[in-house]
């Protein structure tokens, strides 16, 4: 078996006059974590080593809470119940099914991207999990008012320097076609979110200059008005327009929908809907009256083709065949 070692050192040293966290919430100021592959002597460990050698990303099925939940600003693990907190909860993969889980990642994730793209954008760590719960607050008014934190199973989760992936259990060998498609869509969206969150990709100057972000009232405009400026809208969770959210939106657009869907005569047209549903025909002149959306879309698409040999639109086309 080939052996490779991957060492990560993260120095978090700061002098704070005001702290937002309890001392118990954070690790000591000097954080050092080390990871190595292989983690065992299974047949699939050779595959994991090959992936690390090729892309410098560790697939880990043995990890601590700190490995996945820790960030420089605090721990992101959630907890359930009335005294719970938002966040996420993971269970490490069952080693009996990691081989099939790694196959799933290769077929549903890695295979969609060029080697250049994966080398640049894969996270430091990929946590192989049996289950992942997204912890959310639910409000109970039946007896006064109380907040209960519940978990909802998800296929993938991004946090700081790692992506957690599910299906590290017996269900990986029972996946239906619909299960596989849902996993593909989720993991590719999480991958793009992690690229943005880690600051691995940012808008080009050429892209930014197409739109005048100082336009009066831009943050209160309807989608129809924003489209005229080349703003695609759907990542505007707070309706705050910025070049960063636009760059993210075009990336999500390409990996989520087919080119045919984006360019067709719209079947859905809602003047006030900022969601992805309004991306139906977003690049068609019926919505893109000034041609600026298509211009910016092409800039983003061409950027990744030219720099990473990767046509992101092919992912959306494949997932919507």
Report on the structure:
This protein is an alpha+beta fold and 321 residues long. Helix content is 35%, strand content 19%. The chain has 11 helices and 10 strands. The strands form 3 sheets. Strands 3, 6, 7, 8, 9 and 10 form a 6-stranded mixed sheet that branches. Strands 1-2 form a two-stranded antiparallel sheet. Strand 4 and strand 5 form a beta hairpin. The longest helix has 21 residues. The two termini are 39 Å apart. The relative contact order is 0.10. The N terminus is likely disordered.
Tertiary shape: globular
Query: What helical percentage do the residues reach?
Result: 25-40%
Total beta strands:
10
Query: From the alpha-carbon coordinates, what is the Rg to the nearest angstrom?
Result: 21 Å
* Number of discrete helical segments: 11
Largest sheet: 6 strands, mixed
C-alpha termini separation: 39 Å
Question: What is the overall pLDDT average?
Answer: 89
Hey, roughly how much beta strand do the residues contain? 15-25%
Low-confidence stretches: 1-33
Order of helices and strands: EEHEHEEEHHEEEEHHHHHHH
The structure class reads: alpha+beta
In short:
With 321 residues, this protein is an alpha+beta fold. It has helices spanning 44-55, 65-69, 98-108, 115-121, 177-197, 205-209, 223-229, 243-256, 259-263, 292-308, 313-319, and strands at 4-11, 30-37, 58-60, 70-71, 74-75, 87-92, 125-140, 146-153, 156-159, 162-165.
């Amino acid at each position: 078996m080939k052996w490779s070692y991957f060492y990560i050192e993260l120095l978090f040293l700061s002098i704070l006059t005001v702290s937002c966290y309890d001392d118990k919430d954070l690790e000591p100021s000097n954080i050092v974590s080390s990871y190595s592959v292989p983690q065992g002597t299974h047949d699939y460990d050779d595959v994991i080593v090959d992936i690390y050698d090729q892309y410098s990303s560790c697939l880990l099925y043995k990890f601590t809470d700190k490995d996945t939940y820790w960030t420089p600003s605090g721990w992101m693990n959630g907890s359930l119940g009335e005294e719970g907190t938002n966040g996420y909860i993971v269970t490490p993969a069952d080693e009996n099914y990691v081989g099939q889980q790694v196959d799933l990642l290769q077929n549903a994730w890695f295979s969609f991207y060029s080697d250049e793209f994966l080398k640049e954008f894969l996270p430091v760590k990929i946590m192989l999990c049996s289950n992942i719960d997204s912890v959310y607050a639910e409000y109970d008014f039946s007896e006064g008012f109380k907040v209960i934190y519940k978990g909802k199973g998800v296929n993938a989760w991004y946090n700081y320097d790692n992506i957690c992936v599910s299906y590290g259990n017996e269900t990986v060998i029972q996946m239906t076609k619909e299960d596989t498609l849902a996993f593909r869509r989720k993991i590719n969206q999480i991958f793009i979110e992690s690229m943005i969150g880690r600051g691995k990709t940012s808008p080009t100057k050429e892209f930014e200059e197409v739109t005048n972000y100082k336009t009066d009232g831009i943050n209160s405009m309807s989608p129809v008005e924003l489209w005229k400026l080349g703003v695609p809208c759907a990542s505007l969770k707070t309706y705050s327009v910025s070049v960063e959210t636009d760059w993210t939106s075009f990336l999500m657009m390409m990996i989520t929908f087919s080119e045919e869907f984006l360019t067709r005569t719209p079947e859905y047209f809602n003047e006030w809907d900022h969601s992805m549903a309004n991306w139906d025909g977003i690049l068609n002149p019926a919505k893109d009256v000034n041609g600026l959306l298509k211009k910016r879309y092409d800039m983003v698409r061409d950027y990744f083709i030219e720099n990473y040999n990767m046509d992101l639109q092919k992912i959306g086309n494949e997932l919507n065949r």
